[in-house]
Amino acid sequence: MNSVATLMELRHTMLFAARNLKRNARRSVVTLMSIAFGFTALALFAGYTMDVYMGLRNQAVYGELLGHLTISRPDMAQEGYLHPEKYLLDADNIRKIEEVIRQISPEAKFAPRLAVSGMISNGKISTIFLAEGVAPTDMRALRGRFANASGTLDPDKPTGITVSRGLASLLGLKEGDNVSLLGSTVRGQVNAIDEEIVDTFDTGNAATNDKMIFMPLTQARALYDAEGRADRLTVMLPDAAQTDAITARIVTALNAQGLQMDVKPWYELSVFYRQVKGMLNMIFAFLFTIVLVTSTMALTNVISMNVVERTREIGTLRALGMQRGSIIRLFLTEVVIMVVSGCFIGLLLTLLLGWGINATNISYVPPNSTAAVPLTIGFDPSLMIVISLVLSVFGALAAWLPTHRAMHQPIIDALGHV
Fold this sequence. Notes:
Elements: H1 2-23, H2 25-63, E1 69-72, H3 76-79, H4 84-87, H5 91-104, E2 109-121, E3 126-133, H6 136-143, E4 160-164, H7 165-171, E5 178-184, E6 190-201, E7 212-215, H8 217-224, E8 232-236, H9 243-256, E9 262-265, H10 266-269, H11 271-309, H12 311-319, H13 324-359, E10 363-364, E11 373-374, H14 381-407, H15 411-415
Parallel strand pairs: 3-7, 4-6
Antiparallel strand pairs: 1-8, 1-9, 2-3, 2-5, 2-8, 4-7, 5-6, 10-11
């Protein structure tokens, strides 16, 4: 019986609140639309950033071949270039690490990697290069659904390399051309090998598009004179959502075998991803603050005016025995109705505008990028729910302050208010 009575009271409160909002329809609609437009702006920007993060993640994981995890010796990034022999993984290290990975995630794919650098020459012009050595079959496995994208090595051409398009343009290279790579070995001696161009690719980054190369691991080892060795092991997991959990398990298992290794997820290695995400999150927080302040001020203004105009009504209700809490709940219900209705209209606008933007095929060139990317709007339900809840909470606070003040006004003064 108590639950039925509560539901009936809630129903009457909502009907009464809706009737009160209708009494000031123009004011209520303006406030509701301000909430709807604010919600739409935030939801569209959240959907845009979600797609940007997804694109950056795919570029880092599959394009740069960072995989989901990278395993290397501690301090390899800082000290490995100064003392490479001390920080390279030997064949025994690689075998033990692979056994640990298979025990924890049997479906994971992994590949030994070796980074080399030096000079590349077409016989007339020379320039610097940065190369990643990886076995062609491992490269296709790491790229997953992007295995057929440009820039993939050919397993049938053991001396075939793929170069970035900026580098190919700089040296006038095309598929089938031969080049010479000059670099230093692990002991600091000069070494050179001849390679064949089998493909070109776009790194997507202006800073690397004129110097990046992918080459077979055997060739990288030959140039570096590091047979059977690698500087890191790249791991691709079957479920990216388990990256952090599996990272912790791999670290524990490696330590148990006496292997002190750095195990880093892809987002720690992709500096560009972290920088862009931090910038867009800051912009979203700024927009969220503006929308929140604007919506709260609009709701405060509406409720304050409603309280002033209905002061005698409030006095009458209190004189008839209505409790202060019930009257405050009435005004809070009005705010909730406006916020929920505004967010619902905002949701419809978000879906409509998002579909329209995606259908127009707009593209743009991001900073430090080499190619245009499509402007797409995703859909982030969890963030939309958070936006709605935050707007509701601040709207309730905006309604409570003026209403609470009016509730403490003497009944006789409220009845005599003009």
